[in-house]
Structure formats: C-alpha cells, structure tokens
Design a protein that fits this description.
Shape: globular
Number of strands: 10
CATH architecture of the largest domain: 3-Layer(aba) Sandwich
Length: 390
C-alpha cells in the first residue's frame, strides 16, 4: 500500500512538472502582444497590474453671446458622445475615459473641470457655463489646455482637443500655429469645429497642423431626437439606479446631490439626453468610487472593516460588519439587475432609431456638435487601433 502511495506521489509530481513545462513552452511560443488576456483588465501580470489604455478629451467652448446654441448642444449631447465608447477597446481592453472642459469667449480661458472620469462633474461644468464675452483667443486656450492638463505620456493613448467657436482663429496673443504644433508634439490631436458657414482657413490650418479634423456645424440647430418606445422606461431606470448608491465619507452627500441634479439637468435638456445619460450610468464609464461604497469596494479602494461608523449612512451605522457587507452586496446585485434592463432596452432602442434615421438622413444634412465629435472620435480612435463593437 505504501509503495502504491509513493508511486502515485511520483506521478502527481511528474504530472505537475509536465504541465509547468508546457505552460512555459506556450509562453515562449506566443508573442506578448497577442498573449491570452487576463480574466480582468486590472488583473496582475508579471507582478504588476495591467494598465488600461486611456482616452482623454478636452472640450474648449466659445461662450460668447452668439454661442448659446453651441453650449446647449454640448449640454444635451454629452452622454451621447460618452456612449460612443461603451464598446471601445484597444487590444481587447476597455480604455479609461477622461474629459475636461474650458470656456474661452471671455479671456483668459477658464478651466471648468480638469481631465476627470467623474462624468457628473463634467455635466455640472457644462450646465454652469455662463454666456458672456466677445473675444475668442483660440491659440491661447489651446496652449493653456496643452500645458496645464495632465495628459498621458503613453504613445498608444488617444488624446484629443475639440475647440468650437465662430470667430477668426488668429485672434489673441498666442499664434495658433505655435500652439497646435506644441500640442501634436505631445501626441494631442486638435479638432476644430467652426460654428457657421464653411470652414475658414485658420480653422482648417489649425486642425491640419495637429493631425486633427476640421469640421463645421450649425450651432443654432436643435439636435433632432428620434423618439423610441423605450426612451421613457430607460430614463426612469436611470433614476432608479440612484437608489442603489451608498454614500460614504466626506464626499458622500455632495456626490448624491450632484448625481440627482445632473439627472434633472439631462431631463430638462430633453428626453433624449435623459435616456442617453441612463445608458451611460448603466455602463463602465460611470464610476463613483470617491463617494459610493458599491463602486469603491468593487474597485478595491476601501476596506469596509476600516470605515468609521460616522462615515457611513445612518442606516448602516449600527450594523455588524457582516450585515454591512451583505447590504453592500444587495445594492450591487440590485444595481446589476437595473443596468441589465437598461442595456437590453437600449439594444432594441438602437435598432429602432437606426431604421428611423435612414429616413431622416435624406431630409437634413446639417451637422450638430454631437455628430462632429463622434465622427472625429471614431476616425481618430480607429487610427490608434481602437476597435468598436456593435
């Protein structure tokens, strides 16, 4: 019996050794660029966390009196643009998304929100833009955004500036040619969006100097929304998601208030904006780990056992640790169910809208801000080897 046991032990050791050898042989045979991806994008590889690719977008808006329509388009279509990245991947990995906002119609250019993945802050910034001024210094705002924002230094990352306005590109103390050349040296592409007829030379030249795209939009046009049977239900589910958030810490109350207010702003803008915001909230780019326990624990940013009772919501303070963990798990599960409903409804909505848009395409060829942004994003992201699913 003892001899049989020893033989079995030998077989086990030899078997494990063989498996290890095969694994090492496979590792050498497969180039790193096409190696099997980890189960999770942030899983450890060779002792280090695999770094997600980055998409960084800075939006520079002329906020002079004639640009009210442009600002309204930016407010209502933010979520449509963000949702373009829901299926985006680079090398099979979903990128992180950061957005910054400046207004520049009343010099000096003002930073409203730096590059951030807190999309509620971006929405808050857009709805807080004042309409005033009358001097638009394009070169100066491009230079400011290039120098002051924390841009990625990774060559693979997608870095884009979108500047929109209607005055000559040559205004102001900074030569736009110098500013655009400095931007592309950092790998930041400049996309120009002229609001009005045609695309003047400076707006064309600025984009060409920084590998970008020059576009023209009708900033006075109201963005056409194709209503679908799913819109209202998707928008309501977006509001229902809020009930699954658990505010904690110093930023908790502010986060809850900001979330609710931006739901209201989207609803005021249009049912389309509310619906698109709900789709954003149901996907990975809407993250609130700075104030929500569900996201923070999921991302491994907090240890529930170490949080002080006073930093928890009232209903959790007298719970045991096990009860707190169970409560968070319950909210995470509920959130997952609601997100699934939203995304399933959105599949049907996208199909319905696509069929309707085919009919509308022949009636209006005018570009609006969302179309211009999406067009450039798709084109430039594809050149950087990003792929978009259905």
């Amino acid at each position: 019996m003892k001899r049989l046991s020893n033989r079995l032990s030998c077989f086990v050791v030899l078997g494990l050794f063989a498996v290890a050898c095969v694994a090492r042989a496979q590792d050498k045979a497969v180039p790193k660029a096409v190696a099997k991806p980890p189960v999770k994008a942030d899983a450890k590889a060779d002792g280090k966390k695999k770094k997600r690719p980055m998409v960084q977008i800075a939006i520079l808006l002329d906020n002079s009196g004639s640009m009210r329509g442009l600002i309204n388009q930016a407010r209502s279509e933010l979520w449509t643009v963000v949702n373009e990245f829901v299926t985006a991947k680079l090398g099979g990995v979903r990128p992180n998304l950061q957005v910054a906002v400046y207004h520049y119609g009343n010099p000096p250019a003002k930073l409203l929100v730096p590059l951030t993945d807190d999309l509620d802050r971006v929405s808050e910034a857009l709805f807080g833009i004042p309409v005033s001024g009358g001097s638009e210094y394009c070169g100066a705002v491009i230079q400011t955004a290039t120098n002051d924002l924390k841009w990625s230094s990774e060559g693979r990352d997608l870095k884009m500036i979108f500047i929109a306005g209607n005055e000559p590109f040559t205004q102001g103390p900074v030569d736009y040619r110098v500013a655009c050349k400095a931007a592309i040296k950092k790998g930041i592409m400049i996309n120009t969006i002229h609001c009005g007829r045609g695309i003047p030379k400076g707006w064309l030249d600025g984009a060409a100097l920084a590998d970008g795209k020059a576009m023209n939009i009708d900033h006075t046009q109201t963005v056409v929304h194709v209503a679908s049977p799913q819109d209202k239900q998707i928008a309501q589910l977006g509001v229902d998601l809020n009930k699954t958030y658990i505010a904690y810490g110093a930023h908790g109350k502010l986060g809850v208030l900001r979330q609710s207010k931006q739901d209201g702003n989207a609803k005021k803008a249009s049912i389309a904006s509310a619906q698109q915001r709900a789709v954003t909230k149901a996907n990975a780019y809407y993250r609130n780990s700075a104030w929500d326990l569900c996201d923070a624990i999921k991302e491994g940013k907090v240890d529930l056992a170490k949080i002080k009772p006073e930093d928890l919501p009232e209903n959790m303070r007298k719970m045991t640790l096990e009860q707190r963990l169970a409560y968070v798990k319950k909210m995470q599960t509920e959130r997952g169910k609601i997100k699934k409903q939203i995304n399933e409804l959105n599949v049907a909505r996208v199909k319905f809208v696509a069929e309707k848009r085919k009919l509308l395409a022949e009636k209006t060829g005018k570009e609006t801000l969302d179309k211009a942004l999406i067009s450039a994003i798709r084109e430039q992201a594809t050149k950087k080897k990003f792929s978009f699913g259905k």
